[in-house]
């Protein structure tokens, strides 16, 4: 059995230590907000936070996550009100939506580390998250909006 | 006559002492020569390292070292820019991950977000190592585009080689990230010689004076 902490909830899972974390999250724990895209860390659809870092769960063995803090899109905020989630909604960012849990999880790391990102910062942070619908301009706009929301939250 | 005998005795005593010292020194020399490269664990032991300057042998050894350092497996993480290289053709890494201050990437694009502690199985998957990173921003240790002369000088300059002294340079050949070049994951070409041959050339270069090949 492997001990996991996902979204601040403890789980004991019966899985091969080499199983990708993504499979455990989706197929064993049942949190399907995180998506399978390429399976080889090339697209970013499967990004979750492992101790606050935006790891790609499709190539991360579950053994790496044992005893660590995992956060998925379902646990990013209590009421879907993380500034990135609110901004994504406000700016109508998704088209098909498949990549966006990964996009938001990557954006959340950027916004935590850089509360006022420039376009270049956003490009540097988000270059590993691919969107086949090409919503990149809306993603960039939403991150600026989220940064503004976040700054207002801090002030109030 | 008695005086003559004493002189002869003294002479023989001196010769014997010199001979004993010579034999001891030779033994130490042979031991140092045989032990300087590896201890029992297989790692280079700097304390047993003996430098004997030989510019011809040194330059010859460095030419071998250079072929390895300029191979894709080494050069790809020692780029001239801030984006690592990728593949046997050393193209810019897809997704354009940036070096960052500490060489470990930026924001959601940290090296370890994709590069695990071990190689991920399969073609076109991220190779792994527990400390996967580029050199840091304040000490880029660029290999790409360096001539043999430039690279040899750079490697011996503590202000350009990560502040490494001779001892650390000797030990560096057994660094796990250096050795990862010989375990690069599926579909990637190995450096042009074995790690053992590279280590021999590296230690020979250092032990013969670490001379830089002539040129610019």
TrEMBL record, chain A:
Domain of life, per lineage: Bacteria
- The reply on keyword Hydrolase is no
An example molecular function term from Gene Ontology annotations: oxidoreductase activity
Pfam families noted in UniProt: Fer2, Fer2_2
The segment(s) forming the 2Fe-2S ferredoxin-type domain are 1-76
Check the UniProt entry and state the signal peptide residues, or none.
none
What are the UniProt keywords, alphabetically?
A: 2Fe-2S, Iron, Iron-sulfur, Metal-binding, Oxidoreductase
Which protein is depicted?
(2Fe-2S)-binding protein
Its organism's taxonomic lineage begins at: Bacteria, Pseudomonadati, Bacteroidota, Sphingobacteriia, Sphingobacteriales
UniProtKB/TrEMBL annotation, chain B:
Source organism superkingdom: Bacteria
InterPro entries, per database record: Multihaem_cyt_sf
Name used for this protein in its record: Cytochrome c domain-containing protein
To which species is this protein native? Mucilaginibacter segetis
């Amino acid at each position: 059995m492997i001990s996991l902490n996902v979204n601040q909830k403890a789980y004991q899972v019966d899985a091969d230590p080499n199983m990708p974390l993504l499979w455990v999250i989706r197929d064993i724990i049942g949190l399907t907000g995180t998506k399978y895209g390429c399976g080889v860390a090339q697209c970013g659809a499967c990004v979750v936070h492992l101790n606050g870092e935006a790891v790609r769960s499709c190539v991360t063995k579950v053994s790496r996550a044992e005893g660590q803090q995992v956060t998925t899109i379902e646990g990013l905020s209590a009421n879907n009100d993380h500034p990135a989630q609110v901004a994504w909604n406000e700016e109508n960012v998704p088209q098909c939506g498949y990549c966006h849990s990964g996009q938001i999880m990557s954006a959340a790391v950027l916004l935590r580390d850089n509360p006022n990102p420039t376009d270049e910062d956003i490009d540097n942070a988000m270059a590993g998250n691919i969107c086949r619908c090409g919503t990149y301009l809306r993603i960039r706009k939403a991150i600026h909006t989220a940064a503004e929301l976040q700054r207002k939250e801090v002030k109030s | 006559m008695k005086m003559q005998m004493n002189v002869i005795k003294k002479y023989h005593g001196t010769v014997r002492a010199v001979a004993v010292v010579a034999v001891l020194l030779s033994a130490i020399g042979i031991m140092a020569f045989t032990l300087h490269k590896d201890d029992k664990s297989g790692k280079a032991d700097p304390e047993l390292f003996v430098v004997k300057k030989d510019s011809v042998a040194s330059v010859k050894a460095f030419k071998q070292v250079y072929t390895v350092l300029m191979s894709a497996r080494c050069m790809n993480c020692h780029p001239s820019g801030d984006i690592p290289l990728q593949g046997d053709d050393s193209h810019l890494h897809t997704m354009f991950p940036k070096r960052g201050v500490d060489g470990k990437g930026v924001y959601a694009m940290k090296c370890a977000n994709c590069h695990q502690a071990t190689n991920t199985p399969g073609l076109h998957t991220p190779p792994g190592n527990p400390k996967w990173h580029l050199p840091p921003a304040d000490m880029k240790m660029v290999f790409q585009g360096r001539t043999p002369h430039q690279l040899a000088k750079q490697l011996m300059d503590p202000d350009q080689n990560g502040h490494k002294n001779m001892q650390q340079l000797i030990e560096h050949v057994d660094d796990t990230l250096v050795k990862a070049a010989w375990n690069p994951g599926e579909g990637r070409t190995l450096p042009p010689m074995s790690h053992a041959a590279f280590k021999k050339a590296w230690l020979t270069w250092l032990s013969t004076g670490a001379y830089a090949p002539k040129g610019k």
